[in-house]
Amino acid sequence: MSYNVEEMSWSDVRNLFRKWRDDNERKSEDVMQLWDAILSSKQGKLGNERHLVLEQVIIAALDCNRVETAEHCVSILSAEFPGSLRIQKYRAMLLEGLERYDDALDELEHIIRKDETNAAPRKRKVALLKAQGRTAEAIKELCEYMKIFMSDQEGWHELCNLYLAESEYAKAAFCMEELLLHNPHSHLIHQRLADIRYTMGGLDNIEMAKTHYCKAVKLNVNNLRALYGLFLCCGHITNSKAAIAKRKEAQKLAQWVMGQIQSRTELSAKDTKMTQTKSGKCGIDSNGELRALEQAFGGLDVGKLTN
Length: 307
Hints:
Order of helices and strands: HHHHHHHHHHHHHHH
Mean pLDDT: 85
Number of helices: 15
Number of strands: 0
Low-confidence stretches: none
């Protein structure tokens, strides 16, 4: 967004920066525009907010690849707070911006040694290792982090992603199970755990995937991805060598799921057709969508059951 800087006072910019900080908005390009035009020459008027604004500008400058501006702000804060671990974190981020990754890692290690309970530098170290493609080292560092901060849900999500990148599906499933302990009523977590179990393969994992897909559908009846996954699980069980009772149960469930998918597809097609008719555009053939859906799952024979 472009601002008319000629009509803005330094207090207007200060208030705008404050609002962005409170709302947790980065607005990096806007921050740099207003900083260069107005606020950089009015630092003395900012009072107690001066240091917060400088930190805000550092992040914005690094986002916009304005390394010189970030370096200038870091040097100001370093002179005023020479032993601050918080300023050392920004110095490490600056080294990342300069592509001095080894120096950045050394800086982060220094912060961690001084304060082992400081989560920010540990997360920054994981992010840096991941950006360099050193996934195994990132996993090791994140595992050490999770031993200390076991309730960090974002950490479990990231560890799951790293394990999936390395095709460590069993460990990725463990991470999602840990997330279920924190948030058992999230249909998205059940869905993702089911996806992982289905990918692992084997009848036991397919059964577990079916259970979590069912839970995801129960928590959100409009979760089409979970419905598709549930249908695939049922088709696999129906055509497997499982007990006849389980196969019959899976067959009935698959037929119910297909009905749910078709009903939601028809409803979605009707809504789209009505919307496009009002706007003068051509409608969508819902029967064609249903035929495509049946063709996509045609390879799974759930209509017949053989002993």
